[in-house]
Amino acid sequence: MLEHGELITAVDLPALPFATHSHYRKVRDRASYAFALVSVAAALYVAGGVVRDVRIALGGVAHVPWRAARAEAALRGAPATEEVFGRAAEAELADAQPLPGNAFKVPLARNVLVRTLLDLTEEEEQR
Amino acid sequence: MRMHLIARATGVPLNRIDGVQKVTGAAKYAYEYPVEGVTYVFPVQSTIARGRVVSIDASAARALPGVIAVLSHENAPRLAPVDDAELAVFQSDAVAYHGQFVAAVVAETSEIARQAACLVVVRYQEQPHDVELRADRSDLYTPPQLIAGIQTDTAQGDVEAALASAPISLDQTYMTPAEHNNPLEPHATVATWSDEGVTLYDSNQGAHSIRDPVASAFGLPPERVRVIARYVGGGFGSKSHPHPHTILTVMAAQATRRPVKFALTRQQMFALVGYRTPTIQRMRLGADRNGRLTTIAHDVVEQTATIHEFPEHTAIATRMMYAAPNRRTTHRFARLDVPANSLMRAPGECPGMFALESAMDELAIACGLDPIELRLRNEPAVDPESGHPFSSRGLVACLREGAQRFGWAPRDPKPRARRDGSWLIGTGVSASTYPAHQYPATALVQVDRAGHYQVRIDATDIGTGAWTALTQIAADALEVPPERVQLEIGDSTLPRAFVAGGSTGTASWGWAICNAASALRTRLYEEYGGIVPAGGLEASGAFETNPEAQQFSMHAFGAQFAEVRVNVDTGEVRVPRLLGVFAAGRIINPKTARSQLLGGMTMGLSMALHEASVLDPRFGDYVNHDFAEYHIATNADVGTINVTWIDEEDLHVNPMGAKGIGEIGIVGTAAAIANAVYHATGIRVRDLPITLDKLLR
Question: In 3-state terms, what secondary structure has residue A111?
Answer without folding.
Answer: helix
